[in-house]
Amino acid sequence: MNLQERMKELRKERKETQVQVALAIGITDRQYQRFEAGRQKPGFDNFCALADHFGVTLDYLAGRTDQR
Question: String of b and e for 4-17 (b: at least 16 CB within 10 Å)?
């Protein structure tokens, strides 16, 4: 599973919209949509913020492991 798939899966598990996640980590909804669509990769700070928001490790979020 890749980053985009993980982001979408985690967001849906939490029953959040893209707008809610974007607001929670301090970015625009358009930017979050680009992350989830794979058109843009999050920078390090946003990547860390996403992992913190979803309560998972960076490796899990990146799809490098299945261990949360």
Answer: bebbeebbeeeebe
Tell me how far apart the alpha carbons of residues 36 and 4 are, in angstroms, rounded to a whole number: 5
User: How high is the pLDDT of residue 40?
Assistant: 96
How far apart are alpha carbons 17 and 15 in whole angstroms?
7
- Residue 5 CA: distances (Å) to CA of 10, 11, 13, 25, 59: 9, 10, 12, 18, 14
Percent helix, strand, coil in the chain (nearest 5)?
A: 65, 0, 35
What is the tens place of the pLDDT at every residue in 21-57? 999 999 999 999 999 999 999 999 999 999 999 999 9
pTM higher than 0.85:
yes
